[in-house]
From TrEMBL, chain A:
Record-given protein name: Ion-translocating oxidoreductase complex subunit D
EC annotation from Swiss-Prot or TrEMBL: 7.-.-.-
GO CC list: plasma membrane
Membrane topology category: Multi-pass membrane protein
From TrEMBL, chain B:
Cofactor dependency: [4Fe-4S] cluster
Keyword check for Metal-binding: yes
Pfam families for the chain: Complex1_51K, Fer4_7, RnfC_N, SLBB
Entry keyword set: 4Fe-4S, Cell inner membrane, Cell membrane, Electron transport, Iron, Iron-sulfur, Membrane, Metal-binding, Repeat, Translocase, Transport
InterPro entries cross-referenced by the UniProt entry: 4Fe4S_Fe-S-bd, 4Fe4S_Fe_S_CS, Ion_transpt_RnfC/RsxC, Nuo51_FMN-bd, Nuo51_FMN-bd_sf, RnfC_N, Soluble_ligand-bd
Domain annotation 4Fe-4S ferredoxin-type: ranges: 358-388, 398-427
Similarity comment: family membership: Belongs to the 4Fe4S bacterial-type ferredoxin family. RnfC subfamily.
Entry membrane topology: Peripheral membrane protein
GO cellular component, one term: plasma membrane
Source organism of the structure: Propionivibrio dicarboxylicus
Binding site for [4Fe-4S] cluster 1: 368, 371, 374, 417
Low complexity compositional bias, start-end: 484-501
The protein's role, per its UniProt record: Part of a membrane-bound complex that couples electron transfer with translocation of ions across the membrane.
Protein name: Ion-translocating oxidoreductase complex subunit C
Length: 337, 571
């Protein structure tokens, strides 16, 4: 007799279903991104997916785990897509390969695989590459560069020289560099007036990508794939410090809306800090985690040397997550004060 | 209008209740054989009162409660006892349990049923009467009801909660009982009320049972009693005693407290019904309403004699060919019956025929991704995924820190888990491991105190012996005449007197030993050791710590657990 255990009913849920929802939620942003930059984005997504699946399969084999079950759970593909979307779209193929492998092999499997990683794998990939290859990781193409598919493929696969034409900076970086110029005497308003780089509220074009991330995130929230608290806390953390500094020195600090739609804010809020494995799990812990990550991301991106601060902020909070969880355990039924 | 409260968590599985609600309760036919386990309730195991070959009457007591928390069992029909032996139990383990097997004679000859006016009985007699009638909680927990019918000494009873929620999917036995026999239920409740004297009586029924609500309201009105019949939102596990108490009174009873200490007590509707039958008709609990549903042609509720073998019972519903298992209880907390020979018992509220289509085999277990769905679903607001990690790691100390024993095993966490982790099984495993260790520890403590006691006794006896020897020697010395004294100073040449078998040397040695022993005892008496004059609790604490030290290298983790020792299983 086989021993069966209750409950005999289960909800129609699975890790795979959750991961597929996350991938689907990324589609609007990818679509806008492709429209802005071109097919290079898809090429990067393809490389990352392939590398992630190969790396995952190799590690599963080494760890003696069932291949089909874990390759099918979709978690490696989610990591791959997040890496691809966090990396510059015209970066050489090996850069995204290194990043993705680092995420899958080291950040995920060497820590024990699915569910065991203390750090967000995609953010580890970003952090490793921006430290190791700072210039390549800072080359973001302007949205209207207008290079065709052939040109983009040549760049990615190293068949064309990497020229200044495609080595722009992110709008965040552009603002910071302009303001930091020793004798610039520029104000935020005058910098943001540069219509070649900046759009309505954020980076030209990039603000639409951010908006698409927001749409995808809200959809996941509506489908109850993410809880929403940690995303809201992250955005609140960033908005709070941005508003405070902007009110204090509007000439030196961009308005909060600019920060919310620039860089990795929206991607971070809905697809990175929402990672349950490396984040906090208690209700209060989620709020603390999100808020602190938002605050820290702003500080790093505005006062630090890196183009954006989301990755480092999230990784720092990942370190704190167990401690936050431990100290915010909710009172149980019958034990509330 | 009663103000309702909410409990957190819970799930809403499909109810599957409609099929078994189509027909009224029917009386199940007499089976060919009845297998009546003696142990059908929480607590003590009733002792058999009958022998093989003995003729029994319907309702005759065949097992007597052996202690306060225990309940009698009775012959479900008249016939001959053909065996008193271990038989397969209605339990997932497949173990056997002492059972009385009766071959019915078909005459259904009752004992002399004596209705009692419960008002004339002293409360203590009334409780005994219920115990001897075998009245236990029929919601599935089968806790002897009489043992719950005393208010706490210091806390006035405020609310009596009557559970008609029936939140488990598939199950409809309480629903139909309330529809068809509401008046007897309400009369039973008045008995409980008179014993507990609560300020309010609240009857909670899930709002997916409008007919039962209607029928109960009418019965309450007809009998002119001041009970509140309330519809509670349908959400599993609203029928859990603690959840229903929460919903109706706002009180949260933690695992560490008993509900009367908080001025509330809870009974199932079917329990109230059987209590009334026992008093007003003199009928002990020999049958119950059992829902037969699931993968059967004719789902229905049957009034079934306890002891009916599962195999005979299921024929009443005509199981479909692809039926591969039978569950007892609901699909959330029930279990798979170990075989068709297992009998229906007081806890058998529902039998569900299962098929691969109805209950697909569980999907492969994946690692936990800490999504927290289980924590949101947990009606006791626990963090099941944390408990899972600690149970898996056998870090049982931590599981208790995270309130493992507040888990009611309702299955909500497993139900929502996207990784298909059988969480409840991990928690049951952890609980049983902790109980086992607790038992081991108690045994070790007992052995240690036995050992210490023996050491003490040995030492005391040694001291007493030395003392005796010394006295004997001293007595001898004084007996000797003073004239012989100088001679005694030259011991080498002196031969001891014939009447003194102990030579002077030995006597001297004994005297010295005795003196030293006395001095040692005096010293010890003078110096108060920090381990003296301890309270029993402190001594126990020391014994516990010692036991722990002994175990320490093997079970580092368990050390931290002693803060809240789990309730030792008493069975």
């Amino acid at each position: 007799m086989t021993f069966t255990t209750p409950p005999y009913l289960t909800q129609d849920v699975s890790v795979r279903r959750i991961m597929l929802h996350v991938l689907a939620a990324l589609v609007p942003a990818i679509a806008v991104y492709v429209a802005l930059i071109g097919p290079a984005v898809l090429v990067q997504l393809g490389i990352a997916t392939l590398v992630a699946l190969l790396g995952e399969a190799a590690m599963l084999k080494l760890r003696d785990k069932p291949l089909a079950l874990f390759l099918g759970d979709g978690s490696a593909v989610v990591t791959a897509w997040l890496v691809a979307l966090a990396f510059p779209p015209l970066a050489p193929w090996w850069l995204i390969t290194v990043g993705t492998l680092f995420a899958i092999v080291i950040a995920k499997h060497l820590y024990g695989g699915l569910g065991q990683n203390p750090f967000n794998p995609a953010m580890i990939a970003f952090a490793v590459c921006i430290v190791a290859y700072p210039s390549l990781m800072s080359q973001w193409p302007p949205v209207d560069a207008g290079n065709g598919i052939g040109e983009q493929l040549a760049l990615i696969f190293g068949q064309a020289p990497r020229l200044d034409a495609m080595s722009g900076a992110t709008p965040l970086d552009a603002l910071k560099t302009a303001l930091k110029g020793a004798d610039s005497g520029l104000t935020v308003a005058s910098v943001l007036d540069n219509r070649a780089v900046f759009g309505h509220v954020g980076g030209k074009g990039w603000e639409w990508v951010s908006l698409a991330y927001l749409v995808g995130g809200l959809w996941m929230w509506q489908r109850k794939i993410i809880g929403g608290q940690v995303s809201a806390a992250f955005l609140a953390g960033m908005a709070l410090i941005a508003t405070a500094l902007w009110l204090l020195h509007p000439d030196q600090f961009a308005n909060p809306l600019f920060h919310l739609v620039s860089g990795g804010t929206m991607l971070g809020a809905f697809f990175i800090v929402t990672d349950p494995v490396s984040g906090c799990t208690t209700p209060r812990g989620k709020l603390i985690f999100g808020f602190a990550a938002g605050l820290l991301a702003y500080i790093i991106r505005v006062f630090g040397g890196y183009p954006d601060g989301v990755a480092f902020a999230v990784l720092l909070l990942n370190i704190c997550a167990p401690l936050i969880d431990h100290s915010t355990q909710p009172a149980i039924f019958g034990m509330k004060k | 209008m009663l103000q309702l409260f909410k409990f957190k968590g819970g799930v809403k599985p499909e109810t599957h209740k409609a099929p078994s609600l189509q027909a009224p309760i029917a009386k199940a036919p007499l089976p060919e054989q009845l297998i009546v386990p003696l142990h059908q309730s929480i607590g003590g195991v009733p002792q058999p009162l009958v022998e093989v070959g003995q003729h029994v009457l319907k309702g005759q007591r065949i097992g007597a409660a052996d202690q306060w928390v225990s309940a009698a069992v009775h012959a479900p029909t008249s016939g001959t006892v053909i065996a008193v032996e271990p038989r397969l139990a209605a339990h997932p383990s497949g173990l056997t349990t002492a059972s009385v097997v009766i071959a019915p004679d078909g005459r259904e000859e009752w004992i002399d049923r004596q209705p009692v006016d419960y008002h004339t009985l002293a409360p203590e007699r009334l409780r005994e009467h219920l115990r001897d009638a075998g009245v236990v909680g029929l919601g599935g927990a089968v806790f002897p009801s009489h043992a719950k019918l005393s208010a706490a000494k210091s806390v006035p009873m405020e609310e009596l909660v009557i559970n008609g929620a029936e939140c488990e999917p598939f199950m409809t036995c309480d629903d139909l009982l309330m529809r068809e026999r509401a008046e007897e239920i309400v009369r039973g409740i008045t008995v409980f009320r008179d014993l507990l004297e609560p300020r309010k009586v609240l009857i909670g029924i899930e709002d997916n049972k409008p007919e039962a609500l209607q029928s109960m309201r009418e019965a309450v009105a007809r009998l002119g009693v001041d009970f509140t019949v309330t519809a509670v939102p349908t959400r599993y596990p609203a029928g859990g005693a603690k959840q229903l108490i929460r919903v109706l009174t706002g009180k949260e009873v933690p695992a560490s407290r008993r509900s009367p200490e908080m001025g509330v007590q809870c009974f199932n509707v079917a329990t109230a019904y059987t209590a009334w039958r026992a008093l007003a008709f003199g009928e002990p609990v020999i049958s119950r309403i059992v829902t037969l549903t699931g993968n059967v042609e004719t789902p229905r509720n049957w009034e079934t004699l306890l002891g009916t073998p599962l195999g005979e019972f299921i024929r009443l519903g005509a199981p479909k060919p692809d039926t591969d298992r039978y569950l007892m209880g609901g699909p959330m907390m029930g279990f798979e019956m170990p075989g068709l020979e297992a009998p229906l018992v007081k806890a058998s509220n529902c039998i569900i025929a299962g098929s691969p289509a109805l209950f697909p085999p569980p999907a492969p277990e994946m690692p936990c991704i800490r999504c927290g769905a289980c924590a949101e679903a947990c009606p006791h607001e626990l963090q099941p995924f944390e408990l899972y990690w600690f149970s898996r790691a056998r870090n049982f100390g931590k599981t208790q820190e995270y309130n493992l024993f507040d888990c009611i095993e309702c299955g909500c966490c497993s139900y929502v888990c996207p990784s298909h982790i059988p969480l409840v099984q991990y928690f049951r495993f952890a609980k049983s491991e902790i109980w086992a260790r607790e038992r081991d520890k108690n045994q070790a403590d007992a052995a240690k105190s036995r050992f210490e006691f023996r050491n003490e006794r040995d030492e005391r006896e040694k001291a007493e012996k030395a003392e005796r020897l010394a006295r004997a020697a001293a007595a001898k010395a004084t007996e000797k005449p003073a004239a012989e004294k100088p001679a005694a100073t030259v011991p080498a040449e002196e031969t001891p007197p014939a009447n003194a078998p102990v030579d002077a040397d030995a006597a001297k040695k004994a005297a010295i030993a005795a003196a030293m022993e006395r001095a040692r005892l005096q010293r010890e008496a003078a110096q108060v050791k920090n381990t003296d004059n301890l309270s029993t609790e402190q001594r126990e604490e020391i014994a516990r710590i010692d036991a722990r030290r002994a175990r320490a290298p093997a079970h580092q983790a368990v050390e931290q657990t002693d803060v809240a020792p789990p309730p030792a299983q008493e069975q």
